[in-house]
Predict the structure of ATP synthase subunit delta.
Amino acid sequence: MKNAVVAKRYAEALYSVAGKGGQADSVEQELAGILDVFKSHPELTNILEHPGISIDAKKKQVTELFKGRVSDLVLNFLNLLFDSRRQDALTDVYTAFVELSDAAKGRIKGEVESAVPLSDEELNELKSKLGANGQQVEFTTKVNPDLIGGLRVRIGDRVLDYSVSSQLNRFRQTLKY
């Protein structure tokens, strides 16, 4: 993140307003949609971040592009970002907004690496075992044959490594002494 502190402040302000209006979920979806538009049209991003184009012209372009497609709250927020010359922080604001939303709903996001693809049943069992204290766990999965067998689970800054390759490495280390 370029400026995580600034992005977090904007996200907190937006989440506060959206939460009071019961719009947090829709705002999250609208921000994701806006970012998808920017990703699929990089020339638009270049125009909106170009220093030679006036802020008013950028705001007019954004309003024309998204009016009727997103809520007034999100459109006003985008204009606020432009007024503050923080339009380049939109991706970071979205990431911070999603983190706030997840925390409020008791959701935890993680990543599961396995040597072979996991079945839905195995993933559900893993979610139920790791979802303590009423928290809901959502995983992205990744297949990594280098693990040989077992799993490596990342949740936040915690890593649970139950892979065969790491066990072999630990065993190799004990044999060195």
